[in-house]
Design a protein that fits this description.
The chain is of the alpha+beta class and 74 residues long. The chain is 49% helix and 24% strand. It has 3 helices and 2 strands, in the order ββααα. Strands 1-2 form a two-stranded antiparallel sheet. Helix 1 packs across helix 3. It is rod-shaped.
């Protein structure tokens, strides 16, 4: 979720506008998602079902499992 703040400051008849956005770190989300994918695989959920649940391709699921060391590449 992105949060934004915008402000306006008036000094000596001049308007100064400024703002900033807080953007969550997407790596944190991906790390959590990948951990859930590994946990689901270890509990017996097949690759094709995991890909449907998380909205990624079966190939991406295999890449995540290989990178985590749960499954060895063929």
């Amino acid at each position: 979720m992105r949060k934004s703040t915008k402000m306006e400051l008036r000094i000596l008849g001049h308007r100064i506008r400024f703002g900033f956005s807080i953007i969550p770190n997407p790596d944190v989300y991906l790390d959590e998602r990948n951990a859930k994918i590994v946990r689901d695989f270890q509990s017996g959920v097949p690759d094709n079902r995991i890909s449907e649940i998380y909205g990624v391709t079966e190939n991406r699921v295999r890449q995540i499992l290989n990178k985590s060391g749960v499954r060895q590449p063929k």
